[in-house]
Amino acid sequence: MLVISTITIHDRCVELQQMRYVVAVAETGSFTRAAERCLVVQSALSHQIAKLERELGARLFDRTSRRVRLTPAGSAFLPAARQALDAAERARAEVSAATGEIRGRLAIGAIPTLAAVDLPTVLKEYHQSHPHVRISLRTMASELLIEQVRDGSMDAAFLGVLPGTAPPGVEHRELIHDRLMAVVWPGHPLAGETEIELRQLAGETFIDFPAGTVGRAQSDHAFAASGVRREVPFEVSAGDLMIRMVRTGLGVTMLPAAFTPQIEGVRTLCVRDAPARVEMLIWSRFTPSPAAAAFLDALGARTDP
Fold first, then answer.
1. Is 271 helix (H, G, I), strand (E, B) or coil?
2. Which of 11, 42, 152, 243 is the most buried (most CB within 10 A)?
3. Fold that domain 2-97 belongs to in CATH
4. φ/ψ (deg, to 5) at 274
5. Torsion (CA) 47, 52, 57, 59 in degrees, nearest 10
6. In Å, how far are 113, 147, 182 from 256, measured between CA atoms?
């Protein structure tokens, strides 16, 4: 007997394909789109889900003419279904690795301003070496990356943190130590300078990462240490949007020195008392999948638990 929250399965078989259909409907919010994703006709998918609901003795979805949503029973079943599918995929990947072929899924993340590694080149080389691995990449803030690597939903991530910071619950390796540079538009009064101090930016309109994020903390700490107050009316999460806003003269920002050679149409200024930062690679403390282990090996990271 298998118990999933309030759902009980008595001596019956729940097929992996049925679980895949449930996950697809839950993620797409549509039986039609789920069938397209799973490459089956909608009637077959609907039949299998209805069959599963009879076996479970509970409806997994509320269906209306406008939308499909999970019932409380469906919400209870979904995490277990995902875990079962992940376990099955991991088992297949382990068997393939034992025969010398790396398969499975590699989920990685990175901050938008990553500069320590040439990630497109790294991924291209990895894909050429392991063409049967499905790679997914997401860009997001460092604190979200840490959370997803810690809970195992992401294998590894590249992030930027304050010096001396060790992200909890994950393995890590420092890649580069860097400092932030001031970024201004070409017509800015400071555009002709080569080096400034933070106090010279007092009174400027700042474009920065959202308050409370690790990316924002780097600048906040440095300005506070220098006794300089600043206003940040524009909070954005993407480095390219920051640059475009600076280029139009909306404000100034601070970005990693290692990242600034990639940007055009603005002026970058060294700051003597600039905020410091560290870019690092983090990975899960769980035993890595064959795909994740191969990725970490390619980067020279430690892969043993």
1. strand
2. 243
3. Arc Repressor Mutant, subunit A (1.10.10)
4. -70, 155
5. -60
6. 7, 23, 9
Task: Kindly give, in sequence order, each residue whose CB lies less than 8 Å from that of residue 202, ignoring residues fewer than 6 positions away.
Answer: 228, 229, 230
**Token pair of 163 as six digits:** 């010096």
Q: Tell me whether residue 224 is exposed, middle or buried, using C-beta atoms within 10 angstroms of its C-beta: 0 to 12, 13 to 18, 19 or more.
A: exposed
Contact 250, 207 (CB under 8 A): yes
DSSP conformation class of 268 = E
**Strands 68-70 and 104-110, bridge-based pairing:** unpaired
Class of domain 176-278: alpha beta
Helices (H), the chain: 16-28, 31-38, 42-56, 72-98, 119-129, 142-150, 214-225, 239-247, 290-298
H or E element, residue 139: strand 133-139
Amino acid present at 223: F
Span 244-258, pLDDT tens digits: 999 999 999 988 888
pLDDT for the residue numbered 302: 55
Task: State residue 8's pLDDT score.
Answer: 42
For residues 222 and 292, give the distance between their C-alpha atoms in angstroms, rounded to a whole number: 36
| pLDDT tens digits, one per residue of 187-226 | 999 988 888 888 888 888 999 888 888 788 888 888 888 8
The whole model's pTM is what? 0.64
Neighbour count for residue 103 (Cβ, 10 Å):
20
Contacts of residue 265, Cβ cutoff 8 Å, sequence gap at least 6: 186, 243, 247
pLDDT above 80: residue 35 = yes
Strands 156-161 vs 104-110: parallel, antiparallel or unpaired? parallel
Residue 198 DSSP label: G
